[in-house]
Structures are given as C-alpha cells and as structure tokens.
Write a structure and sequence with these properties.
With 150 residues, the chain is mainly α. It has five helices and three strands.
C-alpha cells in the first residue's frame, strides 16, 4: 500500500494545504493504506498520524461535494505556509463542512509553465522525478528535495 500511495500522490497537485490533504486522503483510501495500517496496528505511528481517523466514505458525485472542491480550491491559496482562517473553517478543520469530501478524487490538475532539468515535464504534483527523490527544478526560487523511502 505504501508504494501505491506514493504513486497515487504523484498524480495530483499539492500546491495548497487543501490540495495536499485532498490528495493524501484520496490516495490513502484508494491505495488501501488505512486498511493496512489498521490490520498491522500502525495507526499510532507518527508518520500515519490521523490516517486511521477518517472515513473513506463520501458521496463525491453530489453538488455539495463539487461545491466544496471549488470552494476549497478558491479559499486555500497555493503555496501558503499558513492557511487562511476561511480555509481552515471551510476545508481543513475537523468540523469543517468540506473535510468529508477530501477523500474524493482531486479535481483538475494545474499545468506547470516550466520543465525539469532533464527537459521532461513536471509530475502533476509540480515536482520533477529523479531516481530516488522528488525535486524542484534548479531554476526554481525554492530548492526542496524530497527523499523517497521504500
């Protein structure tokens, strides 16, 4: 499930805290990560904090679900290190009206107006694929490198 989860996460943008949460919850559900964590009694592991506490059940085809996706994309600004109060109240807080829809498949993926150092297009997450890491291209203002374990 961990590999499937990581592969799923690579398919989605994580430009805002909402998009990251949406991708993480959707992928945890579709990859079977929650079932595996429960089966192997890993729900208390720090890297899986909260993953076992949410439901994978949501009626994603409803107008409410689509409205929440649009609202959360609008109020949770890309690249914000701290979410706005409106983002928290609408999308991220445990009692927010839209949090239950974070398990739904993330909607439209942004196109990134740059290419990776090797000339390839970035992943939907915006990162460039390296052999054992996900990395920003060298011309980005912020150079982050994410090591992949596994």
């Amino acid at each position: 499930p961990i590999r499937a989860y990581r592969e799923c996460m690579d398919q989605f943008s994580q430009r805002s805290l909402w998009r990251h949460m949406n991708a993480a919850r959707h992928c945890a559900c579709t990859a079977g990560l929650i079932d595996a964590a429960e089966e192997f009694h890993c729900c208390d592991h720090p890297e899986l904090a909260g993953v076992c506490e949410h439901s994978c059940e949501a009626d994603c085809g409803t107008e409410e679900a689509q409205s929440c996706q649009a609202a959360c994309d609008a109020v949770c600004m890309p690249f914000a290190a701290v979410p706005s109060q409106e983002c928290v109240q609408t999308c991220l807080a445990l009692d927010s009206p839209c949090l239950k829809f974070a398990v739904c498949r993330p909607v439209e993926q942004p196109a990134f107006p740059y290419e990776c150092d090797d000339g390839s297009r970035p992943l939907p997450s915006g990162c460039c694929a390296e052999l054992s890491a996900r990395q920003c291209p060298s011309h980005c203002g912020q150079q982050d490198l994410y090591q992949l374990r596994g």
